[in-house]
Amino acid sequence: MDWWVTEAFRIFAFLLIYSCVYAATMWYVVLRKVRRYPWEPTNFWIERWIGKGKWGYLLFSALSPIAIILLDYFSMFHARSVQLVDFIAYGLFYAGSSLALWFWRKVHCIYLEALPEMLTKVARCPERITHL
Amino acid sequence: MLERRNLPRDLKGFGVIGSDPVFSVINVAAALVVYVAFQYLMAATGVYYGPVSLFTALLCGGIAGPMATVMMFFAVFCSLVFRGPQFYELCAPDRCGGFKKVGLLITWADLMAFAAAISVPIVSLAKAPKTIFEFSLNIGVTFFIIFCILCFYAIPLLFLHSSMRFALKSHKETLYQENCREVLRLLSGIGPKSVDSSGILTFLAKRELLSYATDSSDWPVDYAMLSRIVLGVLAFSSQNLLSIIKSIIS
Predict the structure, then answer these.
(1) Least CB-CB distance to B135: which of A4, A69, A85?
(2) 10-residue block means of pLDDT along chain A (132 residues)?
(3) pLDDT at B67 over 60
(4) Which residues of B touch A26 (CB under 8 A)?
(5) Given A107, A124, A128, which is nearest B71 (Cβ)?
(6) Residue B13: helix, strand or coil by DSSP?
(7) Are residues A31 and A46 in the same domain?
(8) Residue B74: pLDDT above 80?
(9) Which domain holds residue A18?
(10) Whether A30 and A53 share a structural domain
C-alpha cells in the first residue's frame, strides 16, 4: 500500500477515534450536569444573545462568513493576484457557511418542536424500562 | 435501566447543545485544538491555511458535527425507548405514528453537516496539494466527512425504522385479528335484526383503524427528504473526489 494511502487512513482513524472519545466524554459531562440541575431547553443561545429574534440571527449567519472572507482576502492575497478559482472557493464557502449557520438554529428549533411530541409518549412507558 | 420519572429530564438534556453556550464554546475549543495540531504539522512543510480554513474547521468540527451527533443520539434514544405499539399513534396526523418530527430533525441535522462541509473543497480548489501529507490529509478528511454525513442519517433512520416497523406490524396483526373476530361474530348465524348498532359501529371503527395502519408508514422520512440527503452526499463526494482524482492523474 502506498505511503499516502496509509497516511490518509491514519488521519481518518484519528478523526474517528477522537470524535468517539470526545462524544463519550461530553456525554458523561452533560449527564452529570443534567442530573445535578433540572434542565429546561430554551431558545437558541446565539439568538438570545443577539436579541433581535430570527431576523437578528439571519443577519448574523449572512454577515459573519463575509467578515471571514474579507479577513482571509486581506491576510492571504495581498501578495499575489486573485484568480477565478479563488472567487469560486469564496462563493462555495459563503453559501455553505451561511446555510450551515442558519441550519444550526433550524435544527434546534425542530428539536424544540419534536420534544413535546416525544414527552407525550413518556406517559405510555412502563415504570422501569428494561429492554434497552 | 431507565425509570419513567427520569425520561423527561433525559429527553430535555439533548437540548443542552443548542440552549447552553458553555457546551458550544467547549466544542469549538476542541475543534480548534485539532485544527492547530494539523496546522502545526503542515507548518513544518511550509503550508499555511488562512482564516477561511480555520472557520470551516470550527464550523464542521465545533458546531455542525456536535449538533448533528447529539440529534443522532436523540433519534436513536427515542427509537429505543419508544419501541412498541403503544407508542405508535395510528391517528397521528403525520401518518408516521408521531415520529415524523424526529425524521425531520435528522434530515435537517444532516443537511447542516453537509452545508458546513461544502467549504472543505476550498482546500482542493484554491490550494493544490503541495506535499504528500497535505494530499493525504485532504483524502482522510474527505472520507471522514462522507462517513459522518452517512452515519448522521443512516444510523438514526434505521433505528427509527426498525422501531416503527415493529410497532406498526403489532398494530396490524392485532387489528386484523380483531376485525376477523368481529366479522365472524356478525356472521355467526345471528339474524340481521338481532345485530345491535353498537356492534356494527365497533366493527366499522376497527376497520377504519386497520385502514389507517395499512396506510401509515414505517419510515420517519418520505422520498422528498431522502432525495435531499442523497443529492447532497453525491454533490459533496463528486466535488471532492473529482479534485482528488485530478490530483492523482496529474
Answers:
(1) A4
(2) 80 90 86 74 88 89 93 75 76 90 94 93 86 66
(3) yes
(4) 23, 26-27, 66
(5) A107
(6) helix
(7) no
(8) yes
(9) 1-39
(10) no
Which ipTM did the prediction report? 0.89
What is the rounded distance in angstroms from the CA atom of residue A93 to the CA atom of residue A90? 5
CA atoms of B46 and B129, how far apart (whole Å) = 12
Q: Are residues A61 and A120 in the same domain?
A: yes
Residue A6 is which amino acid?
A: T
Asked whether residue A63 falls in the same domain as residue A126, the answer is: yes
The DSSP bridge partners found for residue B3 are A128
Nine-digit cell string for A125? 412507558
End-to-end CA distance of chain B: 57
Domain co-membership, A60 together with A102: yes
B2-3 and A128-129: which strand pairing? antiparallel
Q: Residue A62 corresponds to which amino acid?
A: A
Contact A41 B12 (CB under 8 A): yes
What is residue A42's DSSP assignment? -
User: What's the total number of domains in chain A?
Assistant: 2
Q: What is the pLDDT of residues B129-146, one digit of tens each?
A: 667 777 788 888 888 888
Residues A85 and A27 in one domain: no
Q: What is the DSSP secondary structure assignment for residue A128, as one 8-state letter?
A: E
Residue B133 neighbours by CB distance under 10 Å: 20
Q: Tell whether A31 and A47 lie within a shared domain.
A: no
Residue with cell 425504522: B161
B201 and chain A: CB distance < 8 Å anywhere?
no
Please write the tens of the pLDDT for every residue from B193-219: 566 777 778 888 888 888 888 888 888
Residue whose C-alpha is closest to residue A20's, from B151, B183, B121, B244: B151
pTM of the model: 0.87
Whether residue A56 is found in the same domain as residue A100: yes
Sequence-distant (≥ 6) Cβ neighbours of residue A89 within 8 angstroms: B52, B121, B122, B125, B126
According to the per-residue pLDDT averaged within each range, which of B54-58, B196-200, B246-250 is highest? Answer: B54-58
SS3 B2: strand
